[in-house]
Amino acid sequence: MQPQSEFVPKTYGATSFDQFLAWEEIPVMKNFVVGDIRKIEVAPWRRRGGLGCYIILGHPNEPPNSAAYVCEIPPGQSLKPQKQMFEEMIFVLKGRGATSVWLDNGKKQTFEWQERSMFSIPLNAWQQHFNGQGSETVRYFGYTNAPSVFNLYHSYDFVFNNPYQFLDRYRGEEDYFAGKGETLAERRVWDTNFIADIEKLQFHDWTKKGPGATNVELEFCDNIISAHITKSPVGAYKKAHRHGLGADILVLEGKGYSLMWLEGTPMERYDWGPFCMFSPPHMWFHQHFNTGKEPLKMLAFKPFGQKFQVMDYDKLFVSTVGGGHLIEFPDEDPKVRAMFEEELRKEGVAPNMPAHIYKR
């Protein structure tokens, strides 16, 4: 356990989470877009062990409700045991290893993972990550709702030393991390606790968002936070939409750009490539464009999901004409399509947007 006095918020004019970030003493990247997260610099992380860097995406005037980080585990080493009162999803960027999970006075469960594995730690269960390789570094990405929890309770002791066990979520079941799950095809959901390789997931038709689009929604460990992976074909883009803050998007494959804008303000363009990350600000419209010669694949980490809705999730996919948050192709600004076609000409890529989708 960590002593209560190790972190105590003290400063007026700064959130408890911002003060906690400063206390952590590792790099913090704050921006709309960050470059290849496989290459960003990390520094020794006193609390966790290993090396780390926080990634706080979004508008600088909006206090975050989620926080991401990159963590490295040197060859043959492990991180310190941790438990916490905020939810966390993990995606392995590089390497192989194992994680042990347990409850106080409970039996440890250990499961192995590799590059492209994805999983979640049950809320307030103990965890410890191990690098299973003697010669290579492990690097993984973590996404949490820590800011919301810290800013609500402003207590290190409550967050990290809380004895409460969420037995309705996790009781130490032997097959908890076996990769089993439940498909809800009508909502494109795979509800699970562990994914050995995201490349083997089943995707569902999502042409409602754009030509040729497919998608799978990922729910883990009865969390409020969730994720989804979306694929888009060459020469195509998806419809603009908006939602609350905190959705961090990781480009897994492909290159292109996104347009983001608050209703009534000019569009802003942000270019990205493989393993770049970005996050649309609160209720800003955003639209993603694949300009590369390969299909686009994006992994989005979200502070909301479908299982335990904290917002009207279905309204995200209702047209703005009908009171929702989705701009249908016939309603979009004509310069959106013109910009995209010009970018495709520069890349030597043929457009793949049927003309009829722009007509009512």
How is this structure best described in words?
The protein is mainly β and 360 residues long. Strands 2, 12, 13, 15, 16, 17, 19, 22 and 24 form a nine-stranded mixed β-sheet that branches. Strands 1, 3, 4, 5, 6, 9, 11 and 14 form an eight-stranded mixed β-sheet that branches. Strands 8-7-10 form a three-stranded antiparallel β-sheet, with no helix packed on it. A hairpin with a 6-residue loop joins strand 20 and strand 21. Helix 1 packs across helix 2. The longest helix is centred in the last third of the chain and has 14 residues. The protein is globular, with a radius of gyration of 21 Å.
Task: Outline the secondary-structure elements.
Elements: H1 16-24, E1 28-31, E2 33-34, E3 43-44, E4 51-57, E5 67-73, E6 88-94, E7 97-102, E8 109-113, E9 118-121, E10 126-131, E11 138-144, H2 146-153, H3 156-160, E12 181-184, E13 189-192, E14 194-195, E15 204-205, E16 214-220, E17 226-232, E18 240-241, E19 248-253, E20 256-261, E21 268-272, E22 277-278, E23 285-290, E24 296-302, E25 326-327, H4 334-347
Parallel strand pairs: 1-4, 13-16
Antiparallel strand pairs: 2-22, 3-4, 4-5, 5-11, 6-9, 6-11, 7-8, 7-10, 9-14, 12-13, 15-16, 16-17, 17-24, 18-25, 19-22, 19-24, 20-21, 20-23
Helix pairs in contact: 1-2
Number of DSSP E strands: 25
N-to-C span: 62 Å
H-E order: HEEEEEEEEEEEHHEEEEEEEEEEEEEEH
Low confidence ranges:
none
Report the portion of residues in β strands: 25-35%
Mean pLDDT: 93
Proportion in helices: 10-25%
Total count of helical runs of at least 4 residues: 4
Question: What structural category do the secondary elements indicate?
Answer: mainly beta
Q: Largest sheet at a glance?
A: 9 strands, mixed
Mass-distribution shape? globular
**Quaternary organisation:** single chain
Q: Which value, in Å, is the CA radius of gyration?
A: 21 Å
